[in-house]
Specification:
four-stranded antiparallel β-sheet; 11 strands
Length: 374
């Protein structure tokens, strides 16, 4: 009985770790496949320095003239993050004592949404003229829902510490600037050419990346000689958001493999011990006409039952803890029954392969030798 209990505990841990590995990687893939709201393909970013900000018009002109990029813009935060929030003080339909903090992105020109591939749903884009658009804002769909606007266009919104009033001129689709596991945050965009933290530019589709980087390096070094040319690909920065979850999944997979290996060693030894104990019984059954498959089933069924018990113990416990883990993500998968079935089949397959060696070896033994052994 102690041996059987140990086998059940070992395989319960193995099943739980296999289920955890499958759920973690399924959650990661679920978020990776989520629409981002912008086009990350061939989109690059460079942090803004004082020289780059001061020379931006000439830099942008040279980049476009080089032919290696199709569009350029700059903003107060990169597309993969939000670096600023402001308080929305008043809007039509605001409730008593209601407060709202909203993500804020200051864009340099009218090419921001075009460069990033964000879609304008309603209204118009900025003209690029600070005089005409200094008191205009574009909000995303999440902001329109949060402020309960049925007709967002031309709504007046007071924002910031000085309660500046701006008019909504457009609504843009949601973009995942923050966590890929959370809903898109309410965001508004203002035209402010002086406020910049990142220059974003899209490579032309016909240009090789290596050739483009060589050309970009010379252009950026021309206007920013004090610092080396550094860049980030947006798709790589987006994938980096999954590093923690990927590490958890890899660790769970590693421990699952180790647990199965250790469990299999114990199971192999236990199968050999039981086969040795039942040598005489196996010999008698062979004399009476038992086939190899019947002897194999005789020795295997007990272990299959132990593994089945392990699955029944591990499955509800795994479901409870993994469901609790998933609750910290707003954008998450639902745990389906196939995960538990797959984990059970995997462990059952390992069990069959492990015990079959001893079971078949015992079944093929000469019954005369088996009876003489006792």
């Amino acid at each position: 009985m102690p041996r059987k209990i140990l086998v059940v505990l070992q395989f319960s841990c193995s099943v739980a770790l296999i289920i955890s590995t499958l759920i973690v990687f399924q959650q990661i893939q679920h978020a990776k496949d989520r629409p981002k709201g912008y086009d990350a393909n061939r989109l690059m970013m460079t942090d803004v320095s004082a020289d780059l900000n001061r020379n931006y018009p000439a830099l942008k002109n040279d980049l476009l003239q080089s032919g290696v990029v199709s569009s350029v813009t700059k903003a107060s935060s990169p597309i993969t993050d939000i670096w600023s929030n402001n308080t929305i003080n008043d809007w039509q339909g605001k409730g008593p004592n209601e407060t709202l903090s909203m993500a804020t992105v200051a864009v340099s020109d009218a090419d921001y949404f075009k460069t990033l591939g964000m879609q304008l749903r309603e209204g118009r884009n900025f003209t690029g003229n600070l005089g005409s658009d200094s008191l205009s804002m574009i909000i995303n769909e999440a902001a329109a829902r949060r402020m309960r606007f049925k007709e967002p266009l031309n709504q007046a919104v007071d924002w910031g510490q000085t309660a500046q009033r701006a008019k909504v001129i457009g609504v843009v689709g949601n973009a995942l600037m923050g966590s890929p596991f959370s809903p898109a945050v309410p965001t508004y965009f203002m035209l402010s050419p002086d406020k910049a933290a990142a220059i974003m530019y899209r490579l032309s589709p016909s240009v090789r990346t290596s050739d483009a980087i060589t050309t970009l390096s010379s252009i950026f070094n021309k206007y920013n000689p004090s610092y080396p040319y550094l860049y980030h690909f947006v798709d790589e920065s987006y994938v980096a958001k999954f590093d923690l979850e990927t590490l958890i999944g890899k660790l769970a997979g590693l421990f699952a493999g180790l647990a199965i290996f250790i469990s299999s060693l114990g199971l192999f030894g236990l199968a050999a011990f039981i086969a040795e104990q039942r040598t005489k019984e196996i010999g008698i059954r062979k004399v009476l006409g038992a086939s190899v498959s019947q002897v194999w089933f005789l020795l295997s069924k007990e272990f299959m039952g132990l593994v089945l018990i392990s699955c029944l113990i591990a499955s509800p416990l795994s479901f409870y803890f993994l469901q609790h883990w998933l609750e910290k993500y707003d954008y998450r998968i639902s745990i389906g029954p196939w995960v538990f079935i797959l984990a059970g089949l995997a462990v059952m397959t390992v069990t069959i392969l492990t015990i079959s060696f001893q079971a078949i070896k015992a079944a093929l033994m000469n019954p005369v030798k088996s009876l003489r052994s006792e």
